[in-house]
Design brief:
The complex is a heterodimer of chains A (about 350) and B (about 80).
Chain A (H helix, E strand, L loop, with lengths): L2 H23 L1 H12 L7 H33 L2 H10 L5 H12 L7 H10 L4 H13 L2 H11 L1 H24 L8 H8 L15 H36 L6 H4 L6 H9 L6 H13 L4 H13 L2 H7 L5 H25 L1
Chain B lengths: L1 E5 L4 H16 L5 E5 L2 H6 L7 E4 L2 E5 L5 H9 L1
Parallel strand pairs in B: 1-2
Antiparallel strand pairs in B: 1-3, 3-4
The chains are: A mainly alpha (about 350), B alpha+beta (about 80).
Chain lengths: ~350, ~80
Protein backbone atom coordinates (compact mmCIF):
# COMPACT_ATOMS: atom_id res chain seq x y z
CA UNK A 1 0.00 0.00 0.00
CA UNK A 2 1.25 3.48 -0.74
CA UNK A 3 2.41 5.58 2.14
CA UNK A 4 -0.26 8.23 1.86
CA UNK A 5 -3.02 5.64 1.95
CA UNK A 6 -1.46 4.05 5.00
CA UNK A 7 -1.37 7.33 6.88
CA UNK A 8 -4.98 8.03 5.93
CA UNK A 9 -6.00 4.58 7.17
CA UNK A 10 -4.21 4.88 10.49
CA UNK A 11 -5.59 8.36 11.01
CA UNK A 12 -9.16 7.34 10.33
CA UNK A 13 -8.93 4.32 12.64
CA UNK A 14 -7.39 6.52 15.31
CA UNK A 15 -10.33 8.93 15.01
CA UNK A 16 -13.26 6.58 14.40
CA UNK A 17 -12.53 3.93 17.04
CA UNK A 18 -12.35 6.28 20.05
CA UNK A 19 -15.29 8.25 18.64
CA UNK A 20 -17.41 5.09 18.55
CA UNK A 21 -16.46 4.22 22.13
CA UNK A 22 -17.23 7.73 23.38
CA UNK A 23 -20.54 7.68 21.52
CA UNK A 24 -21.33 4.31 23.11
CA UNK A 25 -20.80 5.63 26.63
CA UNK A 26 -22.69 8.87 26.19
CA UNK A 27 -25.42 7.43 24.03
CA UNK A 28 -28.28 7.50 26.56
CA UNK A 29 -28.00 11.23 27.43
CA UNK A 30 -27.54 12.01 23.74
CA UNK A 31 -30.63 10.09 22.70
CA UNK A 32 -32.58 11.58 25.62
CA UNK A 33 -31.61 15.05 24.42
CA UNK A 34 -32.58 14.20 20.86
CA UNK A 35 -35.96 12.63 21.58
CA UNK A 36 -37.18 14.61 24.60
CA UNK A 37 -35.31 17.85 23.94
CA UNK A 38 -35.03 18.44 20.22
CA UNK A 39 -38.08 16.51 19.00
CA UNK A 40 -39.96 17.35 22.18
CA UNK A 41 -41.54 13.96 22.92
CA UNK A 42 -43.03 13.33 26.32
CA UNK A 43 -40.70 11.07 28.33
CA UNK A 44 -43.64 9.63 30.28
CA UNK A 45 -45.71 8.67 27.26
CA UNK A 46 -45.64 5.22 25.67
CA UNK A 47 -44.72 6.72 22.33
CA UNK A 48 -41.89 8.85 23.70
CA UNK A 49 -40.39 5.96 25.67
CA UNK A 50 -40.73 3.59 22.70
CA UNK A 51 -39.02 5.96 20.27
CA UNK A 52 -36.25 6.74 22.75
CA UNK A 53 -35.72 3.02 23.35
CA UNK A 54 -35.73 2.31 19.62
CA UNK A 55 -33.13 4.92 18.68
CA UNK A 56 -30.90 4.12 21.65
CA UNK A 57 -30.91 0.36 21.13
CA UNK A 58 -30.46 0.53 17.38
CA UNK A 59 -27.38 2.74 17.56
CA UNK A 60 -25.91 0.84 20.50
CA UNK A 61 -26.31 -2.54 18.81
CA UNK A 62 -24.92 -1.35 15.50
CA UNK A 63 -21.79 -0.05 17.26
CA UNK A 64 -21.38 -3.33 19.15
CA UNK A 65 -22.01 -5.38 16.04
CA UNK A 66 -19.42 -3.49 14.06
CA UNK A 67 -16.79 -3.77 16.80
CA UNK A 68 -17.42 -7.48 17.45
CA UNK A 69 -17.50 -8.37 13.75
CA UNK A 70 -14.23 -6.55 13.20
CA UNK A 71 -12.69 -8.29 16.21
CA UNK A 72 -13.77 -11.69 14.93
CA UNK A 73 -12.49 -10.75 11.49
CA UNK A 74 -9.15 -9.95 13.07
CA UNK A 75 -8.94 -13.35 14.77
CA UNK A 76 -9.96 -15.06 11.55
CA UNK A 77 -7.36 -13.25 9.51
CA UNK A 78 -4.70 -14.90 11.62
CA UNK A 79 -6.42 -18.16 12.39
CA UNK A 80 -8.70 -19.09 9.49
CA UNK A 81 -10.64 -22.32 9.36
CA UNK A 82 -8.07 -23.91 7.03
CA UNK A 83 -5.50 -23.53 9.74
CA UNK A 84 -7.86 -25.10 12.29
CA UNK A 85 -8.26 -28.09 10.00
CA UNK A 86 -4.53 -28.64 9.74
CA UNK A 87 -4.22 -28.15 13.47
CA UNK A 88 -6.93 -30.70 14.22
CA UNK A 89 -5.48 -33.30 11.89
CA UNK A 90 -1.83 -33.02 12.79
CA UNK A 91 -1.84 -32.52 16.56
CA UNK A 92 -2.71 -35.06 19.21
CA UNK A 93 -5.23 -33.28 21.37
CA UNK A 94 -6.50 -35.89 23.86
CA UNK A 95 -10.17 -35.04 23.57
CA UNK A 96 -9.63 -31.30 23.44
CA UNK A 97 -10.24 -31.35 19.70
CA UNK A 98 -13.99 -31.23 20.36
CA UNK A 99 -13.54 -28.11 22.39
CA UNK A 100 -11.28 -26.44 19.83
CA UNK A 101 -13.64 -27.27 16.99
CA UNK A 102 -16.55 -25.85 18.96
CA UNK A 103 -14.64 -22.74 19.99
CA UNK A 104 -13.72 -22.07 16.39
CA UNK A 105 -17.30 -22.59 15.34
CA UNK A 106 -18.09 -19.72 17.68
CA UNK A 107 -15.53 -17.25 16.39
CA UNK A 108 -15.80 -17.91 12.67
CA UNK A 109 -18.38 -15.72 11.01
CA UNK A 110 -21.10 -18.11 10.01
CA UNK A 111 -22.68 -18.23 6.61
CA UNK A 112 -25.07 -21.14 6.17
CA UNK A 113 -23.91 -21.51 2.58
CA UNK A 114 -20.46 -22.46 3.84
CA UNK A 115 -21.64 -25.30 6.05
CA UNK A 116 -21.48 -27.92 3.29
CA UNK A 117 -18.00 -27.03 1.99
CA UNK A 118 -16.81 -26.90 5.61
CA UNK A 119 -18.31 -30.26 6.36
CA UNK A 120 -16.70 -31.87 3.31
CA UNK A 121 -13.43 -30.10 3.98
CA UNK A 122 -13.32 -31.57 7.47
CA UNK A 123 -14.29 -35.06 6.32
CA UNK A 124 -11.72 -34.90 3.54
CA UNK A 125 -9.02 -33.97 6.02
CA UNK A 126 -9.81 -37.11 8.03
CA UNK A 127 -11.33 -35.24 10.97
CA UNK A 128 -13.71 -37.54 12.88
CA UNK A 129 -17.42 -36.92 12.43
CA UNK A 130 -17.92 -36.02 16.10
CA UNK A 131 -15.37 -33.20 15.91
CA UNK A 132 -16.98 -31.95 12.71
CA UNK A 133 -20.33 -31.93 14.48
CA UNK A 134 -18.86 -29.95 17.38
CA UNK A 135 -17.96 -27.24 14.87
CA UNK A 136 -21.26 -27.51 13.07
CA UNK A 137 -23.33 -27.16 16.24
CA UNK A 138 -21.61 -24.06 17.59
CA UNK A 139 -21.09 -22.24 14.31
CA UNK A 140 -24.65 -20.94 13.87
CA UNK A 141 -25.39 -20.99 17.61
CA UNK A 142 -22.75 -18.53 18.72
CA UNK A 143 -22.19 -15.96 16.01
CA UNK A 144 -21.21 -12.32 15.93
CA UNK A 145 -24.77 -11.08 15.44
CA UNK A 146 -26.18 -13.10 18.35
CA UNK A 147 -23.35 -11.99 20.63
CA UNK A 148 -23.72 -8.31 19.75
CA UNK A 149 -27.49 -8.41 20.20
CA UNK A 150 -27.20 -10.20 23.55
CA UNK A 151 -24.55 -7.82 24.76
CA UNK A 152 -26.62 -4.81 23.78
CA UNK A 153 -29.92 -6.02 25.17
CA UNK A 154 -29.13 -8.35 28.08
CA UNK A 155 -25.72 -7.21 29.28
CA UNK A 156 -22.42 -8.94 29.74
CA UNK A 157 -23.48 -11.68 32.18
CA UNK A 158 -26.22 -13.14 29.99
CA UNK A 159 -23.93 -12.87 26.96
CA UNK A 160 -21.17 -14.85 28.65
CA UNK A 161 -23.65 -17.49 29.77
CA UNK A 162 -25.00 -17.73 26.26
CA UNK A 163 -21.61 -17.95 24.56
CA UNK A 164 -19.98 -20.32 27.04
CA UNK A 165 -22.93 -22.68 27.21
CA UNK A 166 -23.16 -22.63 23.41
CA UNK A 167 -19.51 -23.64 23.12
CA UNK A 168 -19.92 -26.35 25.77
CA UNK A 169 -23.03 -27.61 24.03
CA UNK A 170 -21.06 -28.00 20.82
CA UNK A 171 -18.19 -29.72 22.63
CA UNK A 172 -20.34 -32.22 24.51
CA UNK A 173 -22.80 -32.71 21.66
CA UNK A 174 -19.96 -33.43 19.25
CA UNK A 175 -18.31 -35.78 21.70
CA UNK A 176 -21.49 -37.79 22.26
CA UNK A 177 -22.40 -37.91 18.57
CA UNK A 178 -18.85 -39.08 17.91
CA UNK A 179 -19.37 -42.03 20.23
CA UNK A 180 -22.09 -43.50 18.05
CA UNK A 181 -21.09 -45.07 14.78
CA UNK A 182 -22.84 -42.54 12.62
CA UNK A 183 -20.55 -42.55 9.61
CA UNK A 184 -22.74 -45.10 7.86
CA UNK A 185 -25.53 -42.54 7.63
CA UNK A 186 -23.47 -40.16 5.52
CA UNK A 187 -24.41 -39.77 1.87
CA UNK A 188 -22.62 -42.28 -0.33
CA UNK A 189 -20.43 -39.74 -2.09
CA UNK A 190 -19.31 -38.34 1.26
CA UNK A 191 -18.41 -41.85 2.45
CA UNK A 192 -16.25 -42.17 -0.62
CA UNK A 193 -14.44 -38.93 0.21
CA UNK A 194 -14.04 -40.14 3.78
CA UNK A 195 -12.50 -43.42 2.63
CA UNK A 196 -9.99 -41.51 0.54
CA UNK A 197 -9.27 -38.92 3.18
CA UNK A 198 -5.71 -38.29 4.03
CA UNK A 199 -4.22 -36.80 7.09
CA UNK A 200 -2.63 -33.63 5.97
CA UNK A 201 1.04 -33.43 6.49
CA UNK A 202 1.33 -29.92 5.18
CA UNK A 203 2.33 -27.13 7.48
CA UNK A 204 0.25 -24.04 7.77
CA UNK A 205 1.68 -21.49 5.43
CA UNK A 206 1.77 -18.28 7.34
CA UNK A 207 0.32 -15.49 5.31
CA UNK A 208 2.92 -12.77 5.37
CA UNK A 209 0.53 -9.97 4.47
CA UNK A 210 1.36 -7.14 6.89
CA UNK A 211 -1.29 -6.09 9.38
CA UNK A 212 -1.72 -2.69 7.81
CA UNK A 213 -2.73 -4.26 4.51
CA UNK A 214 -5.21 -6.57 6.16
CA UNK A 215 -6.90 -3.90 8.20
CA UNK A 216 -9.03 -2.38 5.42
CA UNK A 217 -10.27 -5.86 4.48
CA UNK A 218 -11.15 -6.67 8.08
CA UNK A 219 -12.98 -3.37 8.56
CA UNK A 220 -14.74 -3.79 5.24
CA UNK A 221 -15.92 -7.26 6.31
CA UNK A 222 -17.13 -5.95 9.67
CA UNK A 223 -19.04 -3.23 7.90
CA UNK A 224 -20.52 -5.72 5.40
CA UNK A 225 -21.92 -7.78 8.28
CA UNK A 226 -23.52 -4.67 9.80
CA UNK A 227 -24.96 -3.64 6.45
CA UNK A 228 -26.38 -7.08 5.82
CA UNK A 229 -28.31 -7.32 9.08
CA UNK A 230 -29.11 -3.61 9.42
CA UNK A 231 -32.69 -3.93 8.27
CA UNK A 232 -33.35 -6.92 10.56
CA UNK A 233 -31.88 -5.10 13.53
CA UNK A 234 -34.15 -2.15 12.86
CA UNK A 235 -37.26 -4.29 12.38
CA UNK A 236 -36.49 -6.45 15.43
CA UNK A 237 -35.90 -3.47 17.69
CA UNK A 238 -38.94 -1.65 16.33
CA UNK A 239 -41.13 -4.65 17.19
CA UNK A 240 -39.44 -4.89 20.58
CA UNK A 241 -39.92 -1.19 21.25
CA UNK A 242 -43.57 -1.35 20.27
CA UNK A 243 -44.20 -4.42 22.43
CA UNK A 244 -42.43 -2.86 25.40
CA UNK A 245 -44.92 -0.07 25.64
CA UNK A 246 -48.05 -2.04 24.94
CA UNK A 247 -47.70 -5.59 26.25
CA UNK A 248 -48.63 -5.64 29.93
CA UNK A 249 -46.22 -6.89 32.58
CA UNK A 250 -46.46 -10.58 33.37
CA UNK A 251 -48.23 -11.17 30.07
CA UNK A 252 -46.32 -14.36 29.30
CA UNK A 253 -45.91 -15.68 32.79
CA UNK A 254 -49.04 -17.75 32.56
CA UNK A 255 -47.57 -20.06 29.92
CA UNK A 256 -43.85 -19.64 30.08
CA UNK A 257 -43.01 -19.07 33.74
CA UNK A 258 -40.33 -21.12 35.48
CA UNK A 259 -42.72 -23.23 37.54
CA UNK A 260 -44.41 -24.67 34.48
CA UNK A 261 -42.40 -27.81 33.65
CA UNK A 262 -43.38 -27.77 29.99
CA UNK A 263 -42.30 -24.16 29.40
CA UNK A 264 -38.76 -24.94 28.20
CA UNK A 265 -39.60 -27.79 25.78
CA UNK A 266 -42.55 -25.77 24.49
CA UNK A 267 -40.34 -22.75 23.82
CA UNK A 268 -37.74 -24.92 22.05
CA UNK A 269 -40.26 -26.77 19.92
CA UNK A 270 -41.96 -23.51 18.95
CA UNK A 271 -38.56 -22.15 17.95
CA UNK A 272 -37.46 -24.96 15.59
CA UNK A 273 -39.65 -24.04 12.61
CA UNK A 274 -38.84 -20.35 13.10
CA UNK A 275 -36.03 -19.32 10.89
CA UNK A 276 -35.48 -15.84 12.11
CA UNK A 277 -31.99 -14.51 12.30
CA UNK A 278 -30.53 -13.47 15.62
CA UNK A 279 -30.91 -9.80 14.78
CA UNK A 280 -34.65 -10.04 14.46
CA UNK A 281 -35.33 -12.37 17.34
CA UNK A 282 -33.28 -11.07 20.30
CA UNK A 283 -35.17 -7.78 20.77
CA UNK A 284 -38.42 -9.74 20.93
CA UNK A 285 -36.96 -12.18 23.44
CA UNK A 286 -35.82 -9.26 25.53
CA UNK A 287 -39.44 -8.14 25.78
CA UNK A 288 -40.42 -11.68 26.83
CA UNK A 289 -37.88 -11.54 29.63
CA UNK A 290 -38.97 -8.07 30.70
CA UNK A 291 -42.55 -9.31 30.83
CA UNK A 292 -41.83 -12.23 33.09
CA UNK A 293 -40.36 -15.11 31.08
CA UNK A 294 -37.31 -16.57 32.88
CA UNK A 295 -33.93 -16.03 31.22
CA UNK A 296 -33.19 -19.77 30.92
CA UNK A 297 -36.33 -20.36 28.88
CA UNK A 298 -35.49 -17.33 26.76
CA UNK A 299 -31.93 -18.51 26.09
CA UNK A 300 -33.19 -21.98 25.17
CA UNK A 301 -35.67 -20.41 22.77
CA UNK A 302 -32.98 -18.24 21.22
CA UNK A 303 -30.58 -21.18 20.81
CA UNK A 304 -33.28 -23.25 19.14
CA UNK A 305 -34.14 -20.44 16.72
CA UNK A 306 -30.59 -19.90 15.48
CA UNK A 307 -29.13 -23.37 16.05
CA UNK A 308 -31.88 -25.53 14.62
CA UNK A 309 -33.15 -24.30 11.33
CA UNK A 310 -35.03 -26.18 8.68
CA UNK A 311 -33.19 -24.56 5.76
CA UNK A 312 -29.93 -25.79 7.28
CA UNK A 313 -31.38 -29.27 7.62
CA UNK A 314 -32.24 -29.33 3.93
CA UNK A 315 -28.74 -28.13 3.08
CA UNK A 316 -27.25 -30.94 5.15
CA UNK A 317 -29.33 -33.42 3.18
CA UNK A 318 -26.66 -33.20 0.51
CA UNK A 319 -24.06 -34.75 2.79
CA UNK A 320 -26.04 -36.95 5.18
CA UNK A 321 -29.06 -39.21 5.20
CA UNK A 322 -32.28 -38.07 6.87
CA UNK A 323 -31.66 -40.41 9.77
CA UNK A 324 -28.39 -38.67 10.64
CA UNK A 325 -29.97 -35.24 10.30
CA UNK A 326 -32.66 -36.44 12.70
CA UNK A 327 -30.12 -37.74 15.22
CA UNK A 328 -28.06 -34.54 14.90
CA UNK A 329 -30.99 -32.21 15.41
CA UNK A 330 -32.59 -34.44 18.04
CA UNK A 331 -29.44 -34.42 20.14
CA UNK A 332 -29.08 -30.64 19.98
CA UNK A 333 -32.77 -30.18 20.82
CA UNK A 334 -32.47 -32.36 23.92
CA UNK A 335 -29.34 -30.51 25.02
CA UNK A 336 -30.93 -27.10 24.56
CA UNK A 337 -33.93 -28.17 26.64
CA UNK A 338 -31.64 -29.45 29.40
CA UNK A 339 -29.68 -26.19 29.32
CA UNK A 340 -32.91 -24.22 29.61
CA UNK A 341 -33.90 -26.15 32.75
CA UNK A 342 -30.42 -25.77 34.18
CA UNK A 343 -30.40 -21.99 33.70
CA UNK A 344 -33.83 -21.62 35.20
CA UNK A 345 -32.57 -23.48 38.26
CA UNK A 346 -29.35 -21.56 38.75
CA UNK A 347 -30.05 -18.07 37.43
CA UNK B 1 -7.70 -15.02 -18.19
CA UNK B 2 -10.08 -17.56 -16.78
CA UNK B 3 -12.11 -16.51 -13.76
CA UNK B 4 -14.27 -18.84 -11.73
CA UNK B 5 -16.67 -17.87 -8.99
CA UNK B 6 -17.22 -20.74 -6.54
CA UNK B 7 -20.42 -20.78 -4.55
CA UNK B 8 -23.55 -22.85 -4.22
CA UNK B 9 -25.86 -19.93 -4.87
CA UNK B 10 -25.93 -17.94 -1.65
CA UNK B 11 -26.48 -14.16 -1.75
CA UNK B 12 -22.77 -13.50 -1.09
CA UNK B 13 -21.77 -15.61 -4.09
CA UNK B 14 -24.11 -13.66 -6.33
CA UNK B 15 -22.64 -10.40 -5.08
CA UNK B 16 -19.13 -11.62 -5.81
CA UNK B 17 -20.12 -12.60 -9.33
CA UNK B 18 -21.75 -9.26 -9.95
CA UNK B 19 -18.84 -7.21 -8.63
CA UNK B 20 -16.32 -9.29 -10.57
CA UNK B 21 -18.25 -8.84 -13.81
CA UNK B 22 -18.35 -5.09 -13.23
CA UNK B 23 -14.62 -4.91 -12.58
CA UNK B 24 -13.84 -6.94 -15.70
CA UNK B 25 -16.10 -4.78 -17.83
CA UNK B 26 -14.98 -1.42 -16.48
CA UNK B 27 -11.31 -2.20 -16.87
CA UNK B 28 -11.58 -3.92 -20.20
CA UNK B 29 -9.98 -7.09 -18.86
CA UNK B 30 -10.00 -9.98 -21.30
CA UNK B 31 -11.49 -12.75 -19.20
CA UNK B 32 -14.09 -15.46 -19.18
CA UNK B 33 -16.19 -15.71 -16.05
CA UNK B 34 -17.87 -18.95 -15.03
CA UNK B 35 -19.95 -19.63 -11.98
CA UNK B 36 -19.24 -22.99 -10.32
CA UNK B 37 -22.23 -24.12 -8.28
CA UNK B 38 -21.68 -27.86 -8.07
CA UNK B 39 -20.41 -28.77 -4.63
CA UNK B 40 -18.16 -31.56 -5.93
CA UNK B 41 -16.52 -29.13 -8.33
CA UNK B 42 -16.12 -26.53 -5.58
CA UNK B 43 -14.44 -29.05 -3.30
CA UNK B 44 -11.82 -29.79 -5.95
CA UNK B 45 -10.35 -26.39 -5.24
CA UNK B 46 -10.04 -27.26 -1.57
CA UNK B 47 -11.97 -24.25 -0.35
CA UNK B 48 -14.04 -24.61 2.80
CA UNK B 49 -15.58 -21.19 2.83
CA UNK B 50 -17.58 -19.76 -0.02
CA UNK B 51 -17.73 -17.62 -2.04
CA UNK B 52 -14.32 -17.93 -3.62
CA UNK B 53 -12.64 -16.20 -6.52
CA UNK B 54 -10.46 -18.42 -8.70
CA UNK B 55 -8.17 -16.94 -11.33
CA UNK B 56 -6.46 -19.32 -13.75
CA UNK B 57 -7.20 -22.27 -11.44
CA UNK B 58 -5.63 -20.53 -8.43
CA UNK B 59 -7.80 -19.61 -5.43
CA UNK B 60 -7.19 -15.92 -4.81
CA UNK B 61 -9.91 -14.97 -2.35
CA UNK B 62 -12.19 -17.18 -0.29
CA UNK B 63 -14.89 -16.86 2.30
CA UNK B 64 -15.76 -13.24 1.72
CA UNK B 65 -16.85 -10.69 -0.80
CA UNK B 66 -13.92 -8.43 -1.58
CA UNK B 67 -14.30 -4.81 -2.60
CA UNK B 68 -14.13 -3.87 -6.28
CA UNK B 69 -10.69 -2.36 -5.70
CA UNK B 70 -9.33 -5.58 -4.30
CA UNK B 71 -10.71 -7.63 -7.18
CA UNK B 72 -9.14 -5.19 -9.59
CA UNK B 73 -5.78 -5.62 -7.88
CA UNK B 74 -6.04 -9.40 -8.06
CA UNK B 75 -7.03 -9.34 -11.72
CA UNK B 76 -4.46 -6.84 -12.89
CA UNK B 77 -1.41 -7.97 -10.97
Amino acid sequence: MEKIKKIKLIASVAVVLPALIVLYYFLQPLVDYLTYGLIGLNADSHLGAAINFFIYDTIKILILLFLISSLMGLVNAYFPVDRLRIYLTTKKLYGLQYFFASLFGAITPFCSCSSIPLFIGFVKGGIPLGVTFAFLITSPLVNEVAVAMFLGLFGIKATLIYAISGILLGTIGGFILGKFKLDRYLSDWVKEIQANSERESEQWEIDQTPFIDRLPIIIHEGWEIVRKVLVYVIIGIAIGAAMHGYVPENFFTEYLSADKWYAVPLAVILAVPMYANAAGIVPVIQVFVAKGVPLGTAIAFMMAVVGLSLPEATLLKKVMKWKLIGIFFGTITVFIILLGYLFNLIL
Amino acid sequence: MEIKILGAGCPKCKTLEKVTREVVEQNGIDASITKVEDIMEIMKFGVMTTPALVVNEKVEIKGRVPSADEIKQVLTK
